[in-house]
User: Fold Diphthamide biosynthesis protein 3 from Pichia kudriavzevii.
Amino acid sequence: MSETIYDQIEIEDFTFDPATQLFTYPCPCGDRFQISIYDMQEGENIAVCPSCSLMTEIIFDESDLQEYLDQI
Assistant:
């Protein structure tokens, strides 16, 4: 992967919003890293900030997602 990962963050540190089905985490630029639960089910583990070029890697097991899917 040629992109630079800003940090590695545990899934428990992200905020999950069942309405948008997004995991979010504060970005240093003032916006929030975000990734959808469905992208994570497909194996994606990189959350991006829509306002800057930073990305963060989410540390999780696929089995962790069921807890959040139950909230939808």
